[in-house]
Design a protein that fits this description.
Layout lengths: L2 H9 L1 H12 L2 H10 L4 H20 L9 H36 L9 H21 L1 H12 L4 H8 L4 H30 L1
Helix pairs in contact: 1-2, 3-4, 4-5, 5-6, 5-9, 6-9, 7-9, 8-9
Length: 195
C-alpha cells in the first residue's frame, strides 16, 4: 500500500480497519527488532499497540506526510517508546537506590559480619558518607530525619526550622535530586560492592 493511500485510509472510517491490518503485518519484524534492543517479548505487544495509536493520531493531522516506509516509521515510534520507558524505569530505580543508600549508610551492623562483608560494607559506607557529606549538613539532616529516623515532614519542618512541611518537602526533593546526581555514576559500583 502506498504511503498516501495508507494515510487516507487511516483518516476514513470505512477503510480504517484495512489500513490497521496492513500496519499490524509489521508486528513480528518490529517485535524482533525491539527484543534485540533489550525488550521482553511480552512488552513488545504493548509498545507496538501504543505505536499504532501514535501513528494513527499523527495520520489524522492534515499536514502529516509519511516519508518513510510505514514499517520503518512504526519501528521508530516503538524504539522511542521503549527508550523512554527504560529511561523512566532507570530514573525510578535510581531514586529507589538513592533512598536505600541514605538509609543503609547509618544502619550497618559491623559486629555481625564476616571479614569479607565488613570490607565490602566499609567501602560502600565510605562512598555513601562521601555523598552525604557533599550534600551538606542541611540535606543530610533532612534526609536522615525522614528516611532513617522516620520523622514526618511536619516534624522535620519544625525541628529543622522550615516555614512549613511543604517547604521541607520541596527541600527534600532538591536534596534527593542532588544526591541522585552525586550517586548516579557510583551506583553500579556500589551495587557490585553491596552484593
Amino acid at each position: 500500500m502506498e504511503n498516501e493511500k495508507l494515510i487516507q485510509f487511516l483518516r476514513q472510517a470505512a477503510h480504517r480497519k484495512k489500513s490497521l491490518e496492513y500496519l499490524y503485518q509489521s508486528f513480528e519484524k518490529t517485535s524482533k527488532g525491539l527484543q534485540k534492543l533489550g525488550a521482553e517479548e511480552s512488552e513488545t505487544k504493548d509498545i507496538f499497540q501504543e505505536a499504532i495509536l501514535v501513528f494513527y493520531h499523527q495520520a489524522q493531522k492534515l499536514d502529516f506526510k509519511l516519508t518513510a516506509k510505514p514499517s520503518t516509521y512504526l519501528f521508530g515510534i516503538c524504539h522511542n517508546i521503549f527508550r523512554n520507558k527504560r529511561r523512566k524505569e532507570d530514573r525510578k530505580n535510581t531514586f529507589l537506590n538513592t533512598d536505600f543508600l541514605i538509609e543503609f549508610s547509618d544502619k550497618i551492623d559491623f559486629e555481625n559480619q564476616d571479614d569479607t562483608n565488613i570490607y565490602k560494607s566499609e567501602e560502600a559506607i565510605s562512598v555513601l558518607r562521601k555523598i552525604l557529606k557533599e550534600l551538606g549538613e542541611p540535606c543530610k539532616k533532612l534526609l536522615s530525619g525522614y528516611y532513617v529516623d522516620k520523622f514526618s515532614m511536619k516534624e522535620l519542618a519544625e525541628k529543622l526550622g522550615y516555614n512549613s512541611d511543604s517547604t521541607a518537602k520541596a527541600q527534600k526533593y532538591k536534596c534527593l535530586q542532588r544526591a541522585k546526581k552525586l550517586a548516579q555514576h557510583q551506583l553500579e559500583n556500589l551495587q557490585t560492592i553491596l552484593l
